[in-house]
Amino acid sequence: MLSHVNVPLESLNIATLVPMLIPIIGALFILVIDLFKKDLSKSMYVMLSLLFVLLDFGSLIDFSIQFNTNGTMLGYFDLMLVDGLALLSQFIIVGASLLFIPLALTSKRFHEFSYSEFFALFLFMIAGFQFMVATDNLILIFIGLETASLALYTLIALHNRTKSFEAAVKYFTMGALAAGFYVFGAMVFYALTGSVEIHQMAAVFEADGFANLPYILVGVVFMLGALGFKLSLVPFHTWAPDVYEGASASMAGYMSIVPKIAGFVVAMRMFEFLVHSGIVWMDVILYATVVITMTAPNIWALVQTDVKRMLAYSSISHAGFVMAAVLIGSTQANSALFLYWVLFTFTNLGSFSMLWISRQKNLPAGQSSDHPYTKFAGMIKTAPLVATVMALFMLSLAGIPPFGLFWGKLYMISSAVAGGYIVLALIMALNSAIAGYYYVKLIVYMFMKEPVHGLEGKVYSMNASTSLRTIIGIAAIGTVFAVIAVNPLLEFITSFVYNSGY
Amino acid sequence: MLDHILSILIFLPALAAVLGFVVHKDSAKAYGIAVSIIEFVVSLYLWFAFDPNVSGMQFMESLPIVPAFGVNYLLGIDGISLFIIIMASLFTMLGIASLGETKNMKNMVITLLFLQMTMVGVFAALDAILFYVFWELSLVPMLYIIGAWGGPLRIYASVKFFLYTFTGSLIMLVGMLFMAYLYYQATGHWSFSILEWYRLILPESYQLWLFAAFFIGFAIKVPMFPFHTWLPYAHGQAPTIGSVILAAVLLKMGTYAFIRFSLPMFPDAATFFMFPIAVLAIIMIIYTAMVAYAQEDIKQVVAYSSVSHMGVIVLGTFALNVEGITGSVFLMIGHGIVSGALFLLVGVIYDRRHTKLMSEFGGLASVMPRYATIFGIMMMASVGLPLLINFVGEFLSLLGFYQQSHITTLLAGTAIIVGAVYMLSAFKKAFFGEVTNEKNRNLPDINKRELVALIPLTIIAIWLGIYPKPILTPINNSVESIVALMHEKAITPEAKSRIPALEGKIIMQKSEAEVR
Amino acid sequence: MEIGLTHYLVLATILFSIGLIGVMRRKNLLMLFFATEILLNAVNIGFAAISHYYNDLTGQMFAFFIIAVAASEVAVGLGLLIVWHKRTGNINLDTMSSMRG
Amino acid sequence: MELYLYIALFAPLVGSLFAGLFGASPKTLVTGVVNSSLLFASFVASSILLVHVLNGETVHVEMMTWMATGNLYIPFGFVVDQVSVTMMMVVTVVSTIVHIYSIGYMDHDKGFNRFFSYLSAFVFSMMVLVMSDNFAGLFIGWEGVGLCSWLLIGFWYHKETATWAANEAFIMNRIADLGMLIGIFLIYWNTGTLQYDKAFAIMPTLDMTTLIYIGIFLFVGAMGKSAQFPLHTWLADAMEGPTPVSALIHAATMVTAGVYLVVRANPLYHLVPEIGLFIASLGAFVAMFAASMALVNRDMKRIIAYSTLSQLGYMFAAAGLGAYWVALFHLMAHAFFKALLFLGAGNVMHAMNDELDPFKMGGLRKKMVGTFIMMTLASIALAGVFPLAGFFSKDTILEVGFVEHHYVIYTVLLLTAGLTAFYSFRLVALIFHGEERYKLFGFHPHEAYKFMLFAMSPLAILAVIAGSFKTTYFDMVTKLLPETEYHIHSHVVEWVMILGTQAFVIAAIWYAYKKYINFKGEDKEFEKRLCYKILINQYYIPYFYEEYISKPYKELSDILWRKVDLKIVDATVDLIAMTIYKTGENTRTMQNGNLSSMLRWMVAGIVILLSLAVAFGLAVRYSDEITSVLSGLGV
């Protein structure tokens, strides 16, 4: 029955796999080293991982140059799809990972970083996310997603605290359910079209004019559920606060950025043709989801007492904000999504890193979570520089110009206005205002209250080390001087998005 | 230097603030005074170099920030913004100089210098986004000043101030983005340049919506009734310096923005909303004056009086004629000087007695005669006595609006009555009568440090009341070009007739693009 | 009566629903994992049937991948479960709520 | 001539600033002397200008621009013409005298220097008011005198009543000033200028309604400053200020500013005679109304204040009937004798340790001969007995009423003349005649300083002889004002009227003497009568203002602040914030941390979306039916 497979090697365009293969090789390499020599310093692993991620980044640059000349590339039985979206999101994924890895070099000892597995899993995860974004094949998306997710569950659990196990279990179980949603959705689409490639599915649907609309909607619902989990859209967001709280601050920061951008790219690929198909339901549902996801977590963030949990909710809200781009579906909106996320990467990484450096090894008595607001009271007196930098990130998150995230918000709201979604734009604006409260609340604690920890500012930089400071410095510079970077970034992103046909 | 004088004005204090982190805390105040003197001298030089006969923008600077999206670093000033900038640098200088014993003096000075950057930036920006950047950024230092050095309710007050204005300005931002989009539609490229936007003729329906969006942002800042309730808290809790700068400069951002944005961009909407806004202005004037009369805290009296006076400014602005708008701009300066001075004066007594309740005082005129004299002069200026600074502005504002509506102006004119009622009764409670409270018996009179700030303000208040011409002429020229532009752009017959035509005046920007 | 595609799909849906209900109702972590396995395998049936219907191998490939993924999920899941059991001595979901709000 | 103009104008300002320099320091006699000399210089300059004007020439200067924007152009311009020079003379004469007098009167006061500073500042403002050549300049002076009046009424600021009266005066004047301001706006928008000459030149071309409005609003301004009903209450309360202040501001000069305004705006009021009639009627009413309150009052200064009010009514009556020069003439005559009366009262107060109740005095003529003579002279002049100043001016006003056929006004004014005579001599009788009741209260009266009496003497002379200027004055001032002579054509009627009036007045004086010269004690019976109660309570008008305006205003303010601003406006804002926050508090239970419920949320999400999908699918499938059903329902 099976005919002999004979495919010319050059048509496979194996090169398209290179960016994913680099971290995989790196991961295997690390595991192999571990086989031979135990108890190597974690700094060695960190640098090694960094090296591979850098290589990965380099290969992406190479690809983007190729993209500029040749346009979208297909490869490996047309499974791989290297278009602007894929490249942009990989830049973010790899770039964020690059900034994340040095956070392992803390001054306090956290034992997860002493395992070589940690770094191997980390590299696998990167590869998983890269696969996820660089294809429009539902199978490969699934595999990428699961590879990354399984690695992520483990990484969370490695933090080795009761709360992190709880977080991992919750995340894992819900992830499994989401995987079920995903495959069920995929099955429905497959049943309807006989294909698992998004562009072919779109072609089939458009050919028969969305004849089986109810079934298509069933598929869409399950896909939305699965991606909604990844993107933490309400009501699929419930894992996020707990997982962020349970995971280490650095991991939480990472989670707020990388998995989501991968999810956004999939959502863009998945919903782009549906949004443009003129199905009213799609618009309404996405509109409602976006609005609810922006608003509800915002309101919940108001009442949090722990900064990390607040940031978790705020991240959900930001995701909802950005999800608007998928709803609007214009080139400007899609560019805004990437612009927003790049800027968000710097700011959010910065703010979570700030939590990370103030992380104590053990919870002090009378403190129920790692980063309650009260801990930061009066910080301006005890640790003025740390407080200032933290305030900077908060202002950026709140969208105060000229700090990084403002430009993202600006462009995103502008795209909503230009897309005719004036009311949505207003809702976005008002949500930013509500969000202002909880960001400012931290500033209020830091700048306007009396310190509770005595005049010793050490508690705020317990965990600080050169590499952490460097990362925070980079994040701060990225946040403050975003003004300069916005234009090149915007032009770069717009041309990539536009040339990918979005 | 002239080519970049505005940039120097904006970034000199910012740079100084950053360097200020290194300055030893004992020298912080001296450092702040030195920097702000330099800044003030530069701003005076700006006036010197300013050509009062040119009605358009001067000292323009342009540098692309996000050219792909039409955002530019575009600066320029005309007669309207010039004096507010000078006033901002004046008040920063006097404010720092008059700082008394302050905890964390260094932080205060640095914050004030940052604040100065944002203030100058707002008034010098000709790009909507740049304007917005400074507009929002100005909230942060103020938040800190109120929140860190304020009274018992300082956190509530500062957060309320921040969130209230922040919310308003975000809605304004949506309006700006929509405006930019309309411009994009009409011309095919993005631009946030205010001067470019002036060229756009919009259909009335768009104008109304955009006007409303901008209005919310500006109205909260002004603050207009019913959005004013953050102000009493902010003033009530802020330290003296915070109140001074808030009242003198920050509130002016709102009314300035009306003139810079709302009027020339949406002349028809401005005409359409003229009466509703006039009604709000009248409520501001009378209602707030009555509320001021009911206050027990002398600082709250001055705070509410600010709202009341801002009502007159708003009314003058929406007179839509040269007299009214010129008057309102002049009143911005006047109110800045006078309310700034009044807050400084309240600060003087607060420093001595640590209370602002009028019932605690009484008979201060005999204990502190010099203080009472300066307070009296400023109070009379606030009440709008001729030959003092506020009268010129109030007179012109009311005169201007009288062309549009008689009965409205009559109602608004009660400002001079109700204003006298609360001011005089407050003055009577605090300064007249016998000294009943023993704590007041031996209060020292106003000292040199305090006089340093108050004497110049008194001189200005009198000088500009007697001879407003040096300021009035440049303002007048710029306002004339705005009014001419509005008349030219107006599309509804109502607006055409309400906004006077000025023959032979140069129109700032010819309207070229039209949105249909 | 010939068994057609529809029947398979209905079966898959029913199984999926059972899995969903299991996910919702079960309080034992282990049983919960079983329920998720049912979910995934329900879809497998569907994929196999559709694949046969279209005479296209993609569906079966998908099914294989799902099996593989399910297996690794179980591996990770069981690992977590064991650690959790070691730490807390039970695997009841209701004990797992130290973080809330 | 410009130099004299500037000297006349700015000498008082220099004095004010000079005295102000020593404001906070204890008494320095030099300020009093210097200021008095400067005022004298101003007087001399004014006199030179008067001579100049008498020669038929006027001076008009423009010092500098004040405001210029749009079409509006307001300079600091000054004009010395027949009208303004009259006022300048009145102001400088009276104020010079009052300045000198004050050196003695304020001798022991701590605020000696401050007083002179304020007083000179007042004179400066008044000069600006009368000399300005445009309405805006007039308004500067108008507000300036208001300010000085506030400062001087509240001069003894430790006294609650004084500061209260000061504020009352200021605020009431402000109410009227608003009217004036509106009048100015109307003039500007209708004539395009605020210069007197230009604006009046255009006015005949305006329509009647506009002119009426301008007339009304300007007169509202005049009503406040000249304390016409219903804005009159402040004047009596203003007597809290030092007596020289009452003499200068609240008798001779400031309160006549309203009359000056009406006279100055005569081209306007000439065009709207209806308003003129209203002014005259109001004037006549106030004349009677104020005189009636003076009949029973027990406060020496208040009695004189009501008398001032009454005389202002006369002036308005004249001005309203178009006899502008008569009004101005009476203004001048009145300034002299009323200032004299007040200064005399000041002497009495000094002698009596600031006691104001004439019932506690009596028989003072033995101790204070000079004062007695001067006050009696002033009272005779006030009563309008031939040949003193009051006779000439007041009688002309009566004639005007008669000639113009406004017999009601005439009658009222005639009756008022009788009342005037009565209350004036009631006062004189109570103070200077009869038993020396003051001894019961332990006072030791003494005559004032010689130089004070000396300073008053020019006023006394003027009060006697001012009537003789009538013809000269008429010739001069009618170059600017309407030249109307009021002659009753029948000599018989004229003589009957003059003699009748004189007889009536003298009878009133005789009655007052008879009733009060042997005054023993208070007439309890009389005091129980209703009319007494009404009069002593000033027709309950201050009570009415207090109960129905001041208090409600205060209460309303309180309500607006506590109830509206805090409980509604602010609470709404906070409510929005709290609602959002509370929503968060109430819904955060969704995140209860239980994995089962988290999973259920996910499934629930899917179910909701699915049911929405189904609903949508059904809706699409049956869209035709739905449409028909909906249209059947009339949607």
Task: Give the tags.
heterotetramer, B: 516 residues, mainly alpha, two-stranded antiparallel sheet, C: 101 residues, Helix Hairpins, 77% helix, elongated
Task: Describe this entry's structure for a reader.
The complex is a heterotetramer of chains A (502), B (516), C (101) and D (635). By secondary structure, chain A is mainly alpha-helical. Chain A is built from 21 helices and two strands. Chain A has one domain (13-361, 371-499). Chain A has helices at 9-12, 18-36, 42-70, 84-100, 116-133, 138-157, 162-193, 198-207, 213-231, 239-246, 249-255, 258-275, 280-302, 307-328, 331-357, 379-382, 384-398, 404-418, 422-448, 466-480, 482-499; strands at residues 73-75, 80-82. A two-stranded antiparallel ribbon of chain A has the order 1-2. In chain A, helix 7 crosses helix 10 (239-246). Chain B has a domain at 273-466. Chain B is 72% helix and 3% strand. A two-stranded antiparallel sheet of chain B has the order 1-2. In chain B, a hairpin with a 4-residue loop joins strand 1 (58-66) and strand 2 (71-77). In chain B, helix 2 (28-49) runs parallel beside helix 4, helix 10 crosses helix 14 and helix 17 runs antiparallel to helix 20. The longest helix of chain B is centred in the N-terminal third of the chain and has 34 residues, at 154-187. The mean pLDDT of chain B is 91. Chain C is mostly helical and 101 residues long. Chain C contains three helices and no strands. In chain C, helix 2 packs antiparallel against helix 3 (58-88). The longest helix of chain D is centred in the C-terminal third of the chain and has 47 residues, at 541-587. Chain D is elongated and about 115 Å long. The termini of chain D are far apart. Chains in contact: A-B, A-C, A-D, B-D, C-D. At the B-D interface, helix 7, helix 13, helix 15, helix 17 and helix 18 of B face strand 1, helix 5, helix 6 and helix 24 of D.
Q: Which oligomeric form is depicted? A: heterotetramer
Low-confidence stretches of chain B: none
Number of helices of chain D: 26
- Kindly report how far apart the N and C termini of chain D lie: 88 Å
Please tell me how large the radius of gyration of chain D is: 33 Å
Largest interface: B-D, 64 and 53 residues
Q: Averaging pLDDT over every residue of chain B, what do you get?
A: 91
The succession of helices and strands of chain D, N to C, reads: HHEEHHHHHHHHHHHHHHHHHHHHHHHH
Number of strands of chain B: 2
Number of helices of chain B: 23
Mean pLDDT of chain D: 88
**Per DSSP, what share of the residues of chain B sits in E-state strands of 2 or more residues?**
under 5%
For the biggest sheet of chain D, the summary is: 2 strands, antiparallel
**What ranges of chain D have pLDDT less than 50 throughout 5 or more consecutive residues?**
none
What fraction of residues of chain D sit in β-strands?
A: under 5%
Q: How do the strands of the widest beta sheet of chain B line up side by side?
A: 1-2
Look at the helices and sheets of chain D and give the structural class. Answer: mainly alpha
What class would the helix/strand composition of chain B place it in?
A: mainly alpha
Alpha-carbon distance between the termini of chain B?
43 Å
